[in-house]
Amino acid sequence: MVKNISIIGVPMDFGQQLRGVDMGPAAVRYTGLISRLRALGHQVVDTGDISIPIRDCDITIARYNESKDKDKYLKEITQICESIYTAGKAVVQKGDFPLFIGGDHSIAVGTVAAVTNKEPTGLIWIDAHGDFNTPETSPSGNIHGMPLAALIGEGHPSLVNVGRPGAKIHPDNIVLIGQRDLDINEKKRLKKTGVTVFTMRDIDEQGISSVANKALMKLVHLKKIHLTVDMDALDPVEAPGVGTPVPGGISYREAHLLMEILSDSGKINSMDMVEINPILDVANKTAELAVELILSALGKSIL
């Protein structure tokens, strides 16, 4: 199905300590994302990048030396997510497909708020991690480990209230895929909420096809699904250019099959691609794979 796609770049790295993911949107564009989407028949407009404040190195060092800092760049991230919300909402209101390119995964606070503003929407969250911490449970205080919690209404009030007050999505409408590195308290929180989680063990035992179809069945009552992909969900052999790599991830072919099955559902109406770090990458390998996965999610098939 031909789509009108609006690309929104979010070169933000305030959500984590390691620098570099702010260059992710440029790396993805460099691979020819726009021309390759157009080759599939889609109409594509690149709206450019969300304005991002400069991350001052001296301030960075000072803030990360503070003990038990649970508000790392909260003001900046909230401001950026409000801008993402405004830009994404405008695309959705036109009936177009917003494609957000990050940046760290805290951008999802703004992207999911934007795409759920008009009607209930399912959320498929592909990630090695749960991103389900709160300031009280997070071992690091890094906000890129908290966006999913904020989206169900828990965590920093300023993040919970991005775009509009309160939770943006019900836990029953969320499916996580690919998790293999969860904090102890994060595990407890996930089990209590009713969020559906397919860990790497589930993928190993059931196969990616079964997991993908079960994810879609869980969200069968919804007309639209937002897909958010953290590239650290893939095995580091396939995607070395990420800030928080975890061995034993999704393989190259599993990732493509997952995207293809989700695409076949016809329900993917918006998407994030996040956590690509060109500084840590090898010959832009991770960005290239990210683009290939975007293409598979948007209709590219083998035959």
Summarize the structure.
With 303 residues, this protein is of the alpha/beta class. It has helices at residues 24-30, 33-39, 57-64, 74-93, 108-115, 147-151, 157-160, 184-193, 200-206, 208-218, 252-264, 285-297, and strands spanning 4-10, 43-49, 97-102, 122-126, 174-179, 196-199, 225-230, 268-274.
What brief labels describe this structure?
303 residues; alpha/beta; eight-stranded parallel sheet
Described by its quaternary structure, the protein is single chain
Radius of gyration: 17 Å
- Tell me the fraction of residues in β-strands, as a range: 15-25%
From the N-terminal CA to the C-terminal CA, the straight-line distance is: 15 Å
Tally of DSSP β-strands: 8
Average pLDDT taken over every residue: 94
The amount of helix comes to: 25-40%
Low-confidence stretches: 58-68
**Tally of helical runs:** 12
Task: Write the topology of this structure.
Elements: E1 4-10, H1 24-30, H2 33-39, E2 43-49, H3 57-64, H4 74-93, E3 97-102, H5 108-115, E4 122-126, H6 147-151, H7 157-160, E5 174-179, H8 184-193, E6 196-199, H9 200-206, H10 208-218, E7 225-230, H11 252-264, E8 268-274, H12 285-297
Parallel strand pairs: 1-2, 1-3, 3-8, 4-5, 4-7, 5-6, 7-8
Helix pairs in contact: 4-5, 9-10, 10-11, 11-12
